[in-house]
Amino acid sequence: MHQERVNKVLDLMAQKNLTQMIISDPSAIFYLTGTWIQPGERLLALYLTQTGKHKLFVNELFPFADAIQCDKVWLNDNMDGIGVLAEYVEKDKPVAIDKNWPARFLIGLIDKKAGSAFVNGSEIVDRVRMVKDAEEIKLMREASRLNDLAIGRVIELMKEDYDEVEVERKLSEIWEELGADGHSFEPIIGYGANAADPHHSITKGAHKKPGDSIVIDMGCLYKSYCSDMTRTVFYKSVSDEGRKVYEITRDANLKAIDKVKPGVTFAELDAAARDYITDHGYGKYFTHRLGHSIGIDIHEPGDVSAANTEQVVPGRIFSIEPGIYLPGNLGVRVEDLVLVTEDGCEVLNHFTKDLIVVE
């Protein structure tokens, strides 16, 4: 168990007058124990209590879990796992429940009245995970370093007549060569009009043509931590409008990054980029939030949007990714990850944001 992380969760539980919590999200369990368990349809639960008598409820199909420094309650497919768990829960006290637990487990626990109340405890673990510790920062720097190396190689591939699917396949090979653990999310490779779809799905048979913008949104996993970056390049030539849109988007990215420091709100960061794009006449074509938090999961709670008035603090890592998307024509997005420091931020991506025309 990562005892320091567990203690932070327990402290937040105490602030909310909670004595017990059931954590079920595999990412959160990995964060607290250092071990991945993907339970599929089976019950998996880490029971935390202020008494310190923590229990991991885990199926015998996952014997490697024995290495976790925590008392285990072993389950098997012939047992009523919820019935077993209910015997350990303090029935006269509220139970905090972490997110992503199938309803069949939660409702079963409620039916057994295994707690005086059931409350959403997701924010507790999420809030602890928001601020990265030194080891996490080290891993995410390395994941971004690999991403910088890989995107340079992907841009070189654009000189060839590969369709979007072929580029994605070659990117998988690049990750393996670089020592990454594969994609952190399904990459976006969008040519021309496809680039105008912010969440375009890679299309077999989609080929680029001269003048196309090419959006490349990609990231890798490195020792269970994610990287994420977007660069936009042009093929053979760039139109005057394409150049204008690119420069506005890049400058919006830079303006938002320049504003990152402790005390500024996420809403203010979003406004820094959005207002700049709007002032240049493209506001309605910036159709998504400015960014998202990232770590073990590619999208973690705490987005960079007008709706989030929370202040940033040192240790937070999130994306800055403004975009302009002209339907049927072209799309441009420029994305970096930033780490909030004591007096500003560290940009984790170092690949150039100069306009590139692939010949």
TrEMBL record:
Cite the Gene3D superfamilies for this sequence.
Answer: Creatinase/methionine aminopeptidase superfamily, Creatinase/prolidase N-terminal domain
**InterPro entries from the UniProt entry:** Creatin/AminoP/Spt16_N, Creatinase/aminopeptidase-like, Creatinase_N, Pept_M24, Peptidase_M24B, Peptidase_M24B_aminopep-P_CS
Q: Which domain of life is it from?
A: Bacteria
Span of the signal peptide: none
Domain spans labelled Creatinase N-terminal: 5-131
Sorted keywords for this record are: Hydrolase, Metal-binding
* Database matches in PROSITE patterns: PROLINE_PEPTIDASE (PS00491)
Q: Which residues form a coiled coil?
A: none
What Pfam families does the entry give?
A: Creatinase_N (PF01321), Peptidase_M24 (PF00557)
Q: Where is the Peptidase M24 domain?
A: 139-342
Q: Which GO terms describe its molecular function?
A: hydrolase activity; metal ion binding
Q: Which family does it belong to?
A: Belongs to the peptidase M24B family.
Protein name, entry field: Creatinase
